[in-house]
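new request in #modeling-help
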Amino acid sequence: MRSAEMTAEPAEARQLSFSFLRPSRSAAIGTVAVIAFLVLWQIAPGMGWVNGRFTSRPTEVFLAAIDVFKNDNFLFHARISLTEFFAGFILAIVVSIPLGVLLGTSKIARYLIDPPLMALYIAPTLVLLPIMVIWLGIDMAPKIAVVFLGAVFPIVLNTMAGMSEADPRFLRMARSFGASKFDIFTRVLVPGSLPALLTGLRLAVGRAVLGVIVGELFVSQAGIGYQLNLYGSAMRIDRLLVYALIVSAFGYTLTVLVRSVENKVRDWRSK
Amino acid sequence: MIAELFYRRQALVLGTLSMIGIVVFWQIAVDTGFINPFFISTPSQVAAEFITQFEDGSVATNVAATLYCFAWSLGLATVVGIILGMLAGWFADVESALEPFIWFKYSAPTVAFYPLFVAWLGYGTPTIIAIAFLFALTPIYANTLSGIKNTDRDLARAARSFGARPLDIFLRVALPGSVPVMIAGLRLGVGRALTGVVVAELFGANAGLGYAITYYGQLMQTTKMMVSIVIVIVLGVVLTQILSFLETKTDSWRVDSSR
Amino acid sequence: MAQIEIRDLGIDYRKPKSNEVFSAVDNVALSVEKGEFVTIVGSSGCGKSTLLMAVAGLVSLTRGSIQIDGKQISGPGPDRAVVFQEASLLPWRSVRGNVKFGLEMQRWNGGDLNERAMQMIRLVGLGRFSDYHPHQLSGGMRQRVNIARALAVDPQVLLMDEPFGALDAQTREIMGTELLRIWERDKKTALFVTHDIDEAIFLADKIVVMGRNPGHIKEVIKVDLPRPRNEAILDSEDFHELRKRLRAHLAEDMSSMQLVQEVA
């Protein structure tokens, strides 16, 4: 069995890397850059380089953050925005995944649906916000609608692409075992389109967050965007920044989550 | 012969057909009362309104205002994005220093800082250009970075073996090699710049397509809104197509075997 | 009666742009007995892969017939299994999941799927790696999984299309010996396409030499070397003789190819 074991050496055993050393340098430089930025930001108003009223400072923002979390009804606003976000996003997923899967399998359907979909994907769907307000009022509905619109197109387009770019060698292999069309669809095509679907999801997240915030900036009576608008008009830059950072953190967390799943899936593909 | 034409340009034919189909469906849906015309108007009304607005010059004014901000923001984003992207792609330390900020910018919707920009720059053109600039910056920077960073190692090595200095390698190998990727980034940037301009115009402007949409929106005049909306969509497609065309022209330069 | 009977086989293709018709194979007749290991060798373009795909049922015939155990074939079936050159292992399934794939497609009811899969995995020497995913395996290992998957469905005929073509020379040699070891167990009828002369002789009971323009059988050579085969055989006189004959055939094709290229 010796010859068998000779060729039975897993690929990962061959890699010997010192990459644990390298990230440290880039992480260190990154950290230094951020600290330098924060320091500059802190002293700039005091030095007269910028007007402190317009830029605030890290320390003020920090204090404002504590204040916001304790006294500002933060959870109330957060819940509203999160509801709008997830309602629209989940609705988009429910609609776009089946649509993308089905459309991706028919060449004719793809040629028919691709152009209008691409046009709508490129076009800023936020432009429809005012019309949504006319249709749906000024409560949560128009925001859910723009979140939905923002998320739908990248997911459908990417899922369609994933379905249609299936490796023909997989299909030939499946056929050689006499697999039925249904089996090929469920066991080869759909799982194979998962990476593309995840990419679509990641792109959709950014647009969906954009949808909630812009929607709330445009018209709202509560929510994170409402607070952003409020403090912007009142020139409370410190609080404005707190809310802006909260939105960033949210978007960042979601994107990182999707990316990590994407990376795991991509590992499967690496040769 | 027609069958052959159909076969070769299948995509184009079907695409045009579906666009026409949508317009027809739209008209019929409203005519039969399926959809209330108040909400979405009709193709015929929108077309008529478009001619009116075209003749009284408001189309030209709005498109010009939007394109003005668009050109400025895209131009700035291109210059800044390419320069930063090249530096970051060539010098790993620059990339490391910029990375946290880019990540932040990537996950923070720029629009969240819109009130901040308004506080700094007031309502109007400077804010619009600033927002759209930031919108468009990300893909241009990211693609330039990726293009330079992922220069074909074999090519660089071959150049080095002929005695090329780093500057030579940058100018003769890295730069040309990354043109296709950079143009792809530009294509993405175009869409985002337009989005940024129009969205910013929704809030605070006194001319431009976004402004027109909000203005008529407040007056609940859907037909007039639809004119601007359709123009925005068409603009987006046309501008992106121009860059797609450019992209295919430089596609022959592509070296990576992964294609 | 032979297990595989191919009569008057002709397969034509239509070129998409020019609408020209050209013959991939023409006038091919072949008999393969049960339990024979047959290698099909020839230079590129001689139609050997097309012939194999036809027996697999993945390519339709223009003329003639292919019968297996007396029945005309019409598409893929559970009586045949293919080992392709690219392993085509589904990346989201483990080794075990991949070996089970064929069983699932054919609704195997001969017992527990997992057990059958593990049996095959152990047979090809990958018992320790049943939970690994394809991206963690080397090329040789992936081809073993490929072979295990094909054997799992217990086909009557094993069809292999240059399975070791993408591997480096050393791995190829080892895999050849391995394949024979695995084959010795059930001695399934096998059709093995290759362009490697040594491989063609080493593995075979019978060698089918094919030529081009259009693809046809030039000669069928019996190989009487004793089994089980080992590396020592490569140095024997009989082996050298066979090698000379095959090289002569291939040299013919080489020169005719050059002629065509110069004229063109």
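bot summary: Chain C is about 35% helix and 25% strand.
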